[in-house]
Each structure stands twice: as structure tokens, then as C-alpha cells.
């Protein structure tokens, strides 16, 4: 399976990508290599192969999610470069 330059340009337009002439030829070559590799995979007989759901049989052991305050309000404000009573002072973002 081979892709031509017009197809690449159409895909680039749909993806909102822009290529110059040298990158366009490089992308066309890379895309054709990928499509050739997928064609090789399609040729394999996978009738007796079980679907792979997980890459590993390991199970994540997670701790319970318990909310707690590790830093008090005053401790949090202690190292603030600028503060106003109980709040952090930050530069204005919106005019």
C-alpha cells in the first residue's frame, strides 16, 4: 500500500499540519513505511491468538484516598512572596 503526495497533503490539511517541501517528502516516506509495516501485520495468521487486554498480569495496589490537611493555612502562607491577610497576592492576569 502506497500513499501519494495528494493524500499526504489532504491528511495534513485535516490534521492542521504544515510541511515545507523537504519535510513533505520525508513525511511521505515515513507514512509509506508505516503503512507497509501494517500491511505486513495484516498478512499474519492470528486465528488462534487470544486478544490481549492487558500487557501485564500485575495488579496495581493503591492506597485508600483519604483527604487530610497536611499543611495548615498559616503554614501555607508563611513562605508566600506576597500575601494579603489570609490570601496569596498574585499578579493580575486579566485586564
From TrEMBL:
Residue ranges of region Disordered?
Answer: 70-95
Composition-biased stretches (Basic and acidic residues):
81-95
Name of the top EC class for this enzyme: ligase
Kindly give the InterPro entries that the UniProt entry links to this protein: Asp/Glu-ADT_sf_sub_c (IPR036113), GatC (IPR003837)
From the UniProt annotation, give the residues forming the signal peptide.
none
Task: Report which reactions are catalysed by this protein.
Answer: L-glutamyl-tRNA(Gln) + L-glutamine + ATP + H2O = L-glutaminyl-tRNA(Gln) + L-glutamate + ADP + phosphate + H(+); L-aspartyl-tRNA(Asn) + L-glutamine + ATP + H2O = L-asparaginyl-tRNA(Asn) + L-glutamate + ADP + phosphate + 2 H(+)
Any Pfam family = GatC
**Keywords for the protein's UniProt record, in alphabetical order:** ATP-binding, Ligase, Nucleotide-binding, Protein biosynthesis, Transferase
E.C. code: 6.3.5.-
GO biological-process terms attached to the record: glutaminyl-tRNAGln biosynthesis via transamidation; regulation of translational fidelity; translation
Any single GO molecular-function term of the entry would be: ATP binding
* Chain's role: Allows the formation of correctly charged Asn-tRNA(Asn) or Gln-tRNA(Gln) through the transamidation of misacylated Asp-tRNA(Asn) or Glu-tRNA(Gln) in organisms which lack either or both of asparaginyl-tRNA or glutaminyl-tRNA synthetases. The reaction takes place in the presence of glutamine and ATP through an activated phospho-Asp-tRNA(Asn) or phospho-Glu-tRNA(Gln).
Tell me which NCBIfam families the record gives.
gatC (TIGR00135)
Family the entry assigns: Belongs to the GatC family.
* Quaternary structure note: Heterotrimer of A, B and C subunits.
Protein's recorded name: Aspartyl/glutamyl-tRNA(Asn/Gln) amidotransferase subunit C
| The species this protein was found in | Hymenobacter daecheongensis DSM 21074
